[in-house]
Write a structure and sequence with these properties.
Elements: H1 5-14, H2 16-24, H3 28-39, H4 42-48, H5 64-83, H6 94-105, H7 114-121, E1 146-150, H8 154-166, E2 169-174, H9 182-185, H10 217-230, E3 237-239, E4 241-249, E5 254-261, E6 266-271, E7 273-276, E8 299-301, E9 315-319, H11 323-332, E10 338-342, E11 349-350, H12 361-369, H13 373-384, H14 408-424, H15 429-435, E12 447-448, H16 452-456, E13 461-464, E14 468-471, E15 475-478, E16 483-485, E17 488-491, E18 505-507, H17 514-518, E19 537-539, H18 553-574, E20 579-581, H19 583-598, H20 626-634, E21 641-643
Parallel strand pairs: 1-2, 1-7, 2-3, 4-18, 7-19, 8-17, 9-10, 9-17, 10-13, 11-12
Antiparallel strand pairs: 4-5, 5-6, 14-15, 15-16, 20-21
The structure holds NADP nicotinamide-adenine-dinucleotide phosphate (NAP).
Length: 644
């Protein structure tokens, strides 16, 4: 920011009418923060702070005259900076920053978060999570060193960007014909992100031009393609190549990765290190319901949407009610003859007024032209979707209603959602009873209501809650014998998430294989990234790194990539050929993790989900606060590894 500060300010005041119009459409909390940062006016901060009740813009009630005071003060400050060509003010001291942060989100922000937040907000516009060399190229002890990255979604691309910045030779293998991973594969109607986009994006590649607060799939894919173009990554990616096997060779301390191409040909390459970035949510799970293969009409999974299938005027059966169904169902309900939704267990869904809103043009202008505005907005969204309610996801041992909630805060959330859903359902108590889960809120992934409940009130939509017995060539037959004719089946039944890394076969040291070690549903790794017997193998979005309480998976990815780059740096600078996490470090971490998860909502006995395995062990999702994971992954520790 300091580099461009003067020109940014000059541009901002060039057209004062435009500036004022834009400020009127911008969020008041980040505007206040910018003003305080430019002026040091703590009296103004304290005057406005009591009216900011939470991190979302719809949680403020700042009176209009006070808002106007903030805007006037800001216009004056900007003009003053521009008139005197003054440089950026020094960053606020930590105690002021903490007060600003707390005021900006209407909640006390503990001091322990400040280093993390400063890194995420990146006031200086420095790329705060990049990793640099510690010795000159001439002093590096490794010769040719090559890394293979498997997957070109958000994770693999982040790794590729960092590898390229470091100048480490690498190649990305991607099974699809283009980049994007899950955002390429999912293009069902209504597909969108439900984490706010101004935070669900790389910290080093901020996009100020999102048209929606929660963007649709095409816009996210365009962002990913833009990142790839800016970093010149395409030439490093081999498309249409599906890695099938990775085998470690002890003698050379290298991995041999084999792949299959679309035309059936096979190939292989050798690398010193492998980074898997294959995602968790891209192998569709279709339940084995008897007779499913006899169905004569189109039948497809949400992640393999058949756009050639006619839905207009047809009777559509949609099986499953998770995040994908929540978006797809309401997006097709108005054009089908009848939508019959088959729900096995209900999900909790909250309302967010911004979910369907477009970003106001003035807000976009401020993101682009006002110093620090986008940083402060990013901080607010980070906070809003992060650790704030993590404590409320733990069981209170003295709580009298453990079957339906965990503690008083969790019960409050339960009551709040029920009231909201009751309103959406127009007081239809029978329908409400079908829609309200028996387990505590947050037990499964919390969804954002996409007009789902309003959809259920439509004349052409029916919610079925009984078990399905079988499928015939033209119907769904329930266990009670009821027959529901259907022309199309949409499987909104999720992914084979617990079978991590599958179907990639990974064979490590001494005959160890990932499937042999983990089985089908018991993956474990140190920090979700690395495991004993698999030297020089690093996983992105590996075991226990999915985020369920909040936050953006891109944040987790950036933490992981920084850690891995430090490991690779050590290998290259010190001529280390073999890096393998010590078993005791790995085991102790997993014991801590299991103990942490034991009293959390995801292991609640009333919850069934893909977050955990058949033995109720949390395997996919992280129990940690974002802050904890950030701290654990910030610095690679060689003493935790066998270095050879
Ligand atoms: P999901 O959350 O796993 O939901 C699958 C649904 O299918 C559940 O309702 C499940 O019921 C049901 N189901 C599974 N097997 C069934 C069977 N045999 N009979 C009847 N119903 C069955 O899958 P998803 O909706 O595709 O979402 C997966 C994940 O992808 C999400 O949690 C999220 O991480 C991600 N996602 C994100 C977005 C977004 O950002 N907006 C959108 C879509 C997906 P039970 O609940 O009873 O198991």
């Amino acid at each position: 920011m300091s580099v461009d500060f003067r020109s940014l300010v000059r541009q901002a005041v060039r057209d004062e009418a435009r500036l004022r119009a834009s400020l009127a459409e911008s969020d008041i909390a980040p505007l206040l923060m910018v003003t305080v940062q430019l002026t040091g006016d703590m009296a103004l901060l304290e005057a406005v702070a009591p009216h900011i009740h939470g991190p979302w813009n719809f949680l403020q009630s700042v009176p209009e005259d006070l808002q106007q005071r903030v805007r006037e003060r800001l216009v004056g400050a900007l003009k003053d900076f521009a008139a005197h060509d003054r440089p950026a003010p020094p960053p606020p001291p930590p105690e002021v920053l903490q007060r600003m942060m707390s005021a900006g989100v209407g909640q006390p922000v503990p001091a322990e978060y400040i280093p993390l937040l400063l890194e995420e907000m990146s006031f200086g516009e420095a790329d705060t999570r990049s990793v640099g060399w510690t010795v000159d190229p001439a002093a590096r002890r490794s010769g040719a060193f090559k890394v293979l990255v498997i997957g070109a979604g958000f994770g693999g691309l982040c790794a590729a960007i960092r590898l390229k910045q470091l100048g480490i030779a690498f190649e990305v293998l991607e099974k699809n014909a283009d980049v994007g991973g899950t955002w390429l594969e999912n293009d069902y109607p209504g597909c969108a992100v439900d984490t706010p986009n101004h935070f669900y994006s790389y910290s080093f590649q901020v996009n100020n031009r999102w048209t929606r607060h929660f963007s649709r799939r095409d816009e996210i894919l365009a962002y990913i393609r833009d990142v790839v173009a800016r970093h010149g990554l395409r030439e490093h990616i081999r498309f249409g190549v599906e890695a099938s096997q990775a085998v470690y060779d002890e003698a050379s301390a290298t991995w041999r990765v084999q792949w299959r191409e679309r035309d059936g040909t096979t190939g292989s390459a050798t690398a010193n290190a492998v980074i898997t970035a294959v995602g968790q949510l891209n192998r569709p799970a279709i339940p084995a319901i008897p007779g499913a293969d006899t169905f004569k009409g189109p039948a497809f999974h949400t992640a393999r949407w058949d756009h050639s299938a006619t839905l207009d005027g047809r009777r559509v059966a949609m099986i499953g009610t998770g995040a994908s169904a929540m978006q797809a169902g309401p997006s097709i309900a108005d054009r089908v003859a009848h939508l019959r939704v088959f729900q096995r267990t209900p999900h909790w869904a909250v309302n967010n007024p911004n979910y369907h809103r477009e970003v106001a043009p003035g807000h976009i202008w401020s993101l682009e032209h006002l110093p620090y505005y986008s940083n402060w907005l990013r901080f607010q969204l980070f906070w809003a979707s992060s650790d704030g309610f993590h404590p409320s996801l733990h069981r209170d041992p003295g709580w009298p209603h453990p079957e339906r909630s965990l503690n008083a805060a969790n019960q409050k959330m339960r009551d709040m959602i029920i009231e909201y859903v009751r309103g959406e359902l127009g007081g239809d108590e029978a329908l409400l009873a079908k829609c309200i889960p028996s387990y505590p809120p947050y037990g499964k992934r919390m969804l954002r209501d996409n007009h789902w409940y309003q959809m259920l009130r439509r004349d052409n939509v029916t919610l079925e809650t009984g078990p399905i017995a079988r499928i015939t060539e033209d119907s769904i037959v329930m266990a009670d014998g009821t027959v529901h004719p259907a022309d199309v089946i949409v499987w909104a039944t999720g992914f084979q998430a617990s079978k991590l890394l599958w179907p990639l076969e990974i064979v490590g040291r001494d005959g160890h294989s990932v499937r042999g070690d983990w089985g089908d549903d018991d993956p474990r790794a140190y920090l979700g990234m690395t495991a004993p017997n698999y030297p020089n193998l690093f996983m992105l979005y590996g075991p226990n790194t999915n985020l369920a309480h909040g936050g953006s998976i891109i944040f987790h990815t950036e933490c992981q990539v920084r850690y891995i780059m430090q490991a690779l740096r050590l290998m290259i600078e010190q001529g280390v050929s073999r890096l393998e996490v010590r078993p005791e470090v790995h085991d102790a971490y997993n014991e801590r993790l299991d103990a942490k998860a034991a009293d959390m909502v995801w292991t609640h006995p009333g919850v069934t989900s893909w977050y955990k395995n058949a033995r109720n062990r949390l395997t996919v999702t992280s129990p940690w606060r974002l802050l904890d994971y950030w701290a654990m992954t910030k610095d690679f520790r060689a003493d935790e590894f066998r270095v050879g």
